[in-house]
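DM from R.C. (forwarded with permission)

"hey, sorry to bug you on a friday — could you get me a structure for this? deadline for the figure draft is monday and I only need the backbone to look sensible"
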Amino acid sequence: MGWAVVFPISIPLRGGFMNVQRAVISLVLLCLASWMFSSAFAADVEQTYLVLYAKFKPGKAPEALKIIHEHFWPVDKRVGRKAIPFDLMTGEWDHVVYFPYDMARMDTIPSAAEWWKALAEQEGGAEQAQKLFQSFVDLQANSKSEIAKSPGPLMGNR
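My reply, with the result:
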């Protein structure tokens, strides 16, 4: 019985050179298929997010969260935005939300313009939507944004 060593893998072979050739070709094809498979599904696995953090003024968190829950979430649902929100119990921030983000367009998925249009329709016009949003901003003591990328599928999507 002959042995061929390909990279750190030992493959037991019978029959000499032709089987060594087949083993090397099989290994190369397996590596190529693995690379193609992972490349083809990378978009399904990785997702970029715009992450927004909010710290509300003392005593204003309930009012701000009410605006989010009663006004912003219905718009997210209407436009098909798959935001991932958290109302934080500890730490510096009161609320954080992850919005799917398209790095090529540098915009949320769906776009911020589409979201604003739906908010204006829901609130009875652009002026009313702007007033609502400004009242939400006025409840914030601090905010920040970051871009994040998931390293793989979310636990519920496996």
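R.C.: lifesaver. The chain has a mean pLDDT of 80.
me: no worries. DSSP finds five helices and seven strands in the chain.
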